[in-house]
Design a protein that fits this description.
Blueprint: E1 7-12, E2 17-24, E3 27-35, H1 47-68, E4 78-84, H2 88-105, E5 109-113, H3 114-119, H4 121-125, E6 133-138, E7 143-150, E8 153-159, H5 165-175, H6 183-190, H7 215-230, H8 237-262, E9 267-271, H9 278-290, E10 294-296, H10 300-303, H11 307-319
Parallel strand pairs: 1-4, 4-5, 6-9, 9-10
Antiparallel strand pairs: 1-2, 2-3, 6-7, 7-8
Helix pairs in contact: 1-2, 5-7, 5-8, 6-8, 8-9
Length: about 350
């Protein structure tokens, strides 16, 4: 490698994906993601099993990332790792591995907040984006809107007060017997159904805030299914999926555009696992165009949990003169909440 290149190794183990990536001068040279399939049998993530899978996979995944990037740990200039939020055991695996590498090879270490990495993933996708922007981070565990003003400055405008959007998708899928994870299956079936078949609630959609609530939707779906069963009627699964998806998408799009208008922002990005939803991308793109706004939808590999976005945050910090942390930093399993 050339002497003036900045090489960053990223590590991500916040939930059930083991990932490692290498960025060289801000360009992704590798982004290896290993998804754990063991949880499918249980209809959800089992924390202890997730930790064990990370222990087995993290070494090979990091070596694969370095190999694909044609570099070595000796050449790395800094290491970045997710410190939270997420599953405590999973976070411990990743942070301890990163700390060990940093100590052994005398590398600076940057702990990165998982949601912060998601909100900047639009800039990883398109480095030409300017500031300010509105970023919607929407996944199985998080639904939040951010006002992003620089590579190192942002404000949490609002988050969910109960279920996250992805969690609502998964719980509805479980009610319908569609398996786990449920989001992709609801997306697939929703394309085949009638989104107007059921009028499910849009929680807090018009309250004028960026706060989300999806628990009422989940309850409404359960009661609807119970009613259909009591009437011995066949459950139109595709129609339920389409209607649920439309209700969630309506709220996400409305609140994101509301935030952009309120703050006079013309750039919007969406990220997190749920941002892969085809209906969300289609509706958000159309609404953004209608309002003369630019929408950035990162490729799927940058939407799901991945180490490239972790390394990207460290890359921006280095470029802005932010120093690395002491290796004694602690994990932070709890989610980020709104400050309003």
């Amino acid at each position: 490698m050339e002497d003036d290149q900045v090489i960053i190794l990223g590590i991500e183990t916040s939930c059930d994906d083991t990932s490692s990536a290498v960025l060289i001068d801000g360009v992704v040279r590798s982004n290896i993601i290993s998804s754990q399939t063991i949880h499918t049998t249980y209809g959800g993530i089992v924390p202890e099993l997730a930790s064990r899978e990370h222990i087995k996979g993290i070494g090979p995944i990091v070596r694969a990332a370095l190999r694909e990037a044609s570099t070595s740990i000796e050449d790395v200039d800094a290491i970045a790792v997710t410190y939270g939020p997420g599953l405590a055991g999973a976070l411990l695996v990743g942070t301890h591995f990163a700390k060990g590498l940093a100590l052994m090879y005398d590398k600076p270490l940057y702990p990165v907040h998982h949601i912060e990495a998601h909100l900047y993933s639009g800039y990883l996708e398109d480095s030409r984006l300017g500031y300010p922007s509105i970023s919607l981070v929407v996944s199985g565990g998080h639904t939040s809107i951010f006002h992003v003003t620089s590579p190192v400055d942002y404000t949490v405008l609002g988050s969910t007060c109960d279920d996250a959007a992805g969690e609502a998708f998964d719980k509805v899928a479980k009610m319908l017997g569609l398996g786990y994870p449920g989001g992709p299956e609801i997306d697939r079936r929703g394309c085949l159904g009638d989104s107007a078949a059921f009028d499910f609630p849009r929680g807090l959609m018009h309250d004028g805030t960026q706060t989300f609530s999806f628990s009422g939707l989940k309850t409404s779906v359960r009661r609807t299914l119970e009613l259909l069963k009591s009437q011995q009627r066949e459950i139109p699964i595709n129609d339920v999926c389409a209607s649920v998806q439309e209700a969630i998408v309506d709220v996400l799009v409305h609140k994101t555009l509301h935030a952009a208008r309120e703050y006079g922002v013309r750039i919007i990005s969406i990220s997190g696992g749920v941002s892969a939803n085809s209906r969300l991308r289609t509706v958000m793109q159309k609404k953004a165009q209608d309002h003369g706004m630019q929408l950035v939808t990162p490729q799927i590999g940058y939407c799901v949990d991945n180490a490239a976005m972790i390394a990207h945050v460290a890359s921006m910090r280095i470029a802005h003169g932010v120093h690395a942390s002491a290796p004694s930093f602690m994990i932070s399993p709890k989610a980020m909440r709104t400050t309003s």
